[in-house]
Amino acid sequence: MSEKKSCIFCEIINDKNKARIAYEDEHTLAFYDINPVALIHIVIVPKIHLANVNELEDSNIDFVASMFTAAKNVAFTLKVNSSGYRLVINNQSSAGQTVFHLHMHFLAGRDFFWPPG
Ligand code: 5GP
Ligand code: ZN
């Protein structure tokens, strides 16, 4: 995969012992968040370093599709497909992004509210 030095998510992709893995396929890795904000909080990342949605290109479509496949798989595996789950992608600092490797938060196990904070 294309990686960036000093990116914690690239480090986890390269050494899966650094996180608790929830799901993996050719294009995607999903692992438990180190600082969960819900009973179930998993981070789904493409196995390619893109800072966020701004850097997506047409050639990355397989990675995007796999992120959603990962989300569905996690939802069914953890049996929250019926009770509900929220998928969040923060892009840039004002949206709350702190790790600049594209990722989708998978959140479940409690009620969520709208609009988000
Ligand atoms: P962001 O704020 O960029 O949308 O989300 C980054 C997420 O990555 C945060 O929820 C944060 O807790 C999580 N995170 C940051 N560093 C690590 C790490 O080293 N391991 C794991 N498992 N999660 C991390
Ligand atoms: Zn990265």
Task: Write structural notes for this entry.
This protein is α+β, with helices and mostly antiparallel strands and 117 residues long. The protein has one domain (8-108): HIT-like (HIT family, subunit A), CATH 3.30.428.10. The chain has 2 helices and 5 strands. Strand 1 and strand 2 (28-32) form a beta hairpin. The longest helix is centred in the middle third of the chain and has 17 residues, at 61-77. The mean pLDDT is 97. It binds guanosine-5'-monophosphate (5GP) and zinc ion (ZN). The site of guanosine-5'-monophosphate has 13 residues, from strand 2.
Largest sheet: 5 strands, antiparallel
Assigned CATH superfamily: HIT-like
Instruction: Give the H and E element order.
Output: HEEEHEE
What proportion strand?
15-25%
Biggest sheet: strands side by side, in what order? 1-2-3-5-4
Overall pLDDT confidence: 97
Topology at a glance:
Elements: H1 8-14, E1 21-24, E2 28-32, E3 40-46, H2 61-77, E4 86-88, E5 104-108
Antiparallel strand pairs: 1-2, 2-3, 3-5, 4-5
The structure holds guanosine-5'-monophosphate (5GP) and zinc ion (ZN).
Guanosine-5'-monophosphate binds at residues 8, 19, 31-35, 43, 90, 96-99.
